[in-house]
């Protein structure tokens, strides 16, 4: 169970997952326009922000649920050096987000239970790329890979390995195009979430610093009051 290093403050935040643009409120949270494309109206939700340190020493800054568990949009910093910016659910990466891996590679797309699953786009440090389906962190399903030599392969992948027979038999229009489109849409959604998650990161850190500052002021006042009481007691004696 993660433990929170600073208590979160409930703040009213209008979050836009499609058109971020905002002004800072007095309590350090962000107010952002949210337009619901289906309903055609603004929506307001109340979120709680906190800084959370897990038992594996990873640190999360962003939205949490009532129990202080990462839930919503935020940034997860791994002790091993990877960074995830996106959606969380019950303490795990769930939904769309962007992960910068320790080796410099990036994955932008859908996550389930902490790993890449669904549709997404992977870009390696050598320029290699994969666009398509994922299962449990591996390329699995229909997708398109481009290696460092710019050789493109459209195939059905089985746990990261392309099935060569499918590379010959697959039709782009009938079998591949839709999966590539869904992966690109997932990538775009992940990038939008990344932008808002980074702002949640800033908000949570500012909130933590503000809380620490307030505690410091209270401690100084307490110390001063204690000093005055000591002086009065000494004078009375």
From TrEMBL:
<dbReference type="GO" id="GO:0042995">
    <property type="term" value="C:cell projection"/>
</dbReference>
<keyword id="KW-0677">Repeat</keyword>
<dbReference type="Pfam" id="PF02493">
    <property type="entry name" value="MORN"/>
</dbReference>
<feature type="region of interest" description="Disordered">
    <location>
        <begin position="1"/>
        <end position="42"/>
    </location>
</feature>
<keyword id="KW-0966">Cell projection</keyword>
<protein>
    <recommendedName>
        <fullName>MORN repeat-containing protein 5</fullName>
    </recommendedName>
</protein>
<feature type="compositionally biased region" description="Basic and acidic residues">
    <location>
        <begin position="28"/>
        <end position="42"/>
    </location>
</feature>
<dbReference type="InterPro" id="IPR052315">
    <property type="entry name" value="MORN4"/>
</dbReference>
<dbReference type="InterPro" id="IPR003409">
    <property type="entry name" value="MORN"/>
</dbReference>
<feature type="compositionally biased region" description="Polar residues">
    <location>
        <begin position="1"/>
        <end position="12"/>
    </location>
</feature>
<dbReference type="GO" id="GO:0048678">
    <property type="term" value="P:response to axon injury"/>
</dbReference>
């Amino acid at each position: 169970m993660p433990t929170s290093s600073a208590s979160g403050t409930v703040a009213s935040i209008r979050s836009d997952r499609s058109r971020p643009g905002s002004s800072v409120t007095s309590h350090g949270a962000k107010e952002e326009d949210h337009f619901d494309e289906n309903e055609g109206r603004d929506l307001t939700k109340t979120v709680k922000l906190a800084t959370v340190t897990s038992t594996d020493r990873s640190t999360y800054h962003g939205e949490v649920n009532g129990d202080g568990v990462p839930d919503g949009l935020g940034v997860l910093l791994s002790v091993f050096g990877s960074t995830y910016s996106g959606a969380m659910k019950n303490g795990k990466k769930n939904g769309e987000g962007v992960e910068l891996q320790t080796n410099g590679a990036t994955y932008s797309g859908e996550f389930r239970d902490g790993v890449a699953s669904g549709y997404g786009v992977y870009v390696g440090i050598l320029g290699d790329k994969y666009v398509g389906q994922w299962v449990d962190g591996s390329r699995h399903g229909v997708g398109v890979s481009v290696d460092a030599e710019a050789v493109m392969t459209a195939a059905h992948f089985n746990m990261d390995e392309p099935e060569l027979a499918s590379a010959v038999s697959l039709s782009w229009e009938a079998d591949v195009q839709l999966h590539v489109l869904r992966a690109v849409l997932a990538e775009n959604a992940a990038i939008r979430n990344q932008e808002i998650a980074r702002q949640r990161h800033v908000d949570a850190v500012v909130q933590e610093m503000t809380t620490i500052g307030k505690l410091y002021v209270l401690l100084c006042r307490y110390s001063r009051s204690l000093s005055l009481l000591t002086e009065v007691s000494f004078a009375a004696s």
